[in-house]
């Protein structure tokens, strides 16, 4: 748990409750929500893996 909190802080991301054992996300982190409309539109246009423009994930090491 403590390691996951440190990763969340380091990568500015969120993690599922069963992170690393999640059958959908695997070991990917959830990118936190966009704070502005501009950020949301940039995120929508990005090439990050996603399930929709508002739900994007990224690899963490």
Q: How does this structure look, described?
A:
The protein is an alpha+beta fold. It contains 2 helices and 4 strands; from the N terminus they run αββαββ. The protein has a 4-stranded antiparallel sheet. A hairpin with a 2-residue loop joins strand 3 and strand 4.
Quick rundown:
The chain is an alpha+beta fold. It is built from two helices and four strands, in the order αββαββ. A four-stranded antiparallel sheet has the order 1-2-4-3.
Q: Note the total helix count.
A: 2
Low-confidence stretches: none
Name the beta content range: 15-25%
Give a count of the beta strands, DSSP E runs of length 2 or more: 4
Biggest sheet, strands in spatial order?
Answer: 1-2-4-3
Largest sheet: 4 strands, antiparallel
Distance between the termini: 16 Å
Structural class: alpha+beta
Helix content: 25-40%
* Series of H and E elements: HEEHEE
Radius of gyration: 12 Å
Describe the global form: globular
User: Averaged pLDDT, please?
Assistant: 84
Question: What key phrases describe this protein's structure?
Answer:
4-stranded antiparallel beta sheet, alpha+beta, 61 residues, 31% helix, 2 helices, globular, single chain, 20% strand
Secondary-structure blueprint:
Blueprint: H1 2-11, E1 13-14, E2 29-31, H2 37-45, E3 50-52, E4 55-58
Antiparallel strand pairs: 1-2, 2-4, 3-4
């Amino acid at each position: 748990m403590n390691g996951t909190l440190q990763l969340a802080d380091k990568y500015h991301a969120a993690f599922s409750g069963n992170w690393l054992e999640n059958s959908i996300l695997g070991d990917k982190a959830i990118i936190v929500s966009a704070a502005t409309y501009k950020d949301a539109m940039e995120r929508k246009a990005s090439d990050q893996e996603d399930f929709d423009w508002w739900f994007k994930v990224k690899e963490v090491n």
